[in-house]
Write a structure and sequence with these properties.
The chain is mainly beta. Strands 2, 4, 5, 6, 9, 10 and 11 form a 7-stranded mixed beta sheet that branches. The chain has a 4-stranded antiparallel beta sheet with strand order 1-3-8-7, with no helix packed on it. A hairpin with a 4-residue loop joins strand 7 and strand 8. The protein starts with a strand and ends with a strand.
Length: 115
Amino acid sequence: QVQLVESGGGLVQAGKSLRLSCAASGSILSINVMYWYRQAPGKQRELVGSITSGGMTNYADSVKGRFTISRDNAESTVYLQMDSLKPEDTGVYYCSATVAIFRYWGQGTQVTVSS
């Protein structure tokens, strides 16, 4: 079992930055990949990016060059640094983890970018 708790969301103006955190607990040594997803109102949840246990990252085209995923293994925390935010980045951001065939999700944190 893995428990994930996101934090750091809020209201920010376009062009500004925000950093989200995802604290993991439980069987964290078994986590293969951690992901950040987001869901805008009325839209499907979409993948923002991912980071492997070895630190390799991958990003959606819409955030490439603006968002950065990193991890602090000592703190069992994954971060999503979001720079140059746009109104279309508004949504609920979720972190997720895979352990073998299982997928775990956090409760989400709201990010609202005003124009």
